Amino acid sequence: MPEPHATVTVLEPADSSAVLLTVEEAARRLRIGRTTCFKLVLAGEIESVMVGRLRRVPPEALRVYVTRLRHRSAEAA
Question: Is the overall model pTM greater than 0.85, yes or no?
Answer without folding.
Answer: no
